[in-house]
Amino acid sequence: MDANRIKTLIEDGLPGARADVQGDDGVHFEALVVCEAFAGKLPLARHRMVYATLGERMGGEIHALALKTLTPDEHVRQQERG
């Protein structure tokens, strides 16, 4: 599994999402996922939404995925803070 494939799976599974996925060992990855559908949801629910896009690959082809999940507004505010 590579970072680009994970990015595609997340973006295809969460309409309107933008994902930035990093990782170079093939099993451990980090992702920033920005999606309007996260609005009003707690972090655990957001993470579950992302994991659902990856299905059975989690725990198999993808051993670990560290997630940061933000709404577009949260992402803008975070960038403004630097």
UniProtKB/TrEMBL annotation:
<dbReference type="GO" id="GO:0006351">
    <property type="term" value="P:DNA-templated transcription"/>
</dbReference>
<dbReference type="InterPro" id="IPR002634">
    <property type="entry name" value="BolA"/>
</dbReference>
<protein>
    <submittedName>
        <fullName>BolA family transcriptional regulator</fullName>
    </submittedName>
</protein>
<dbReference type="Pfam" id="PF01722">
    <property type="entry name" value="BolA"/>
</dbReference>
<dbReference type="GO" id="GO:0005829">
    <property type="term" value="C:cytosol"/>
</dbReference>
<dbReference type="InterPro" id="IPR036065">
    <property type="entry name" value="BolA-like_sf"/>
</dbReference>
<comment type="similarity">
    <text>Belongs to the BolA/IbaG family.</text>
</comment>
<dbReference type="InterPro" id="IPR050961">
    <property type="entry name" value="BolA/IbaG_stress_morph_reg"/>
</dbReference>
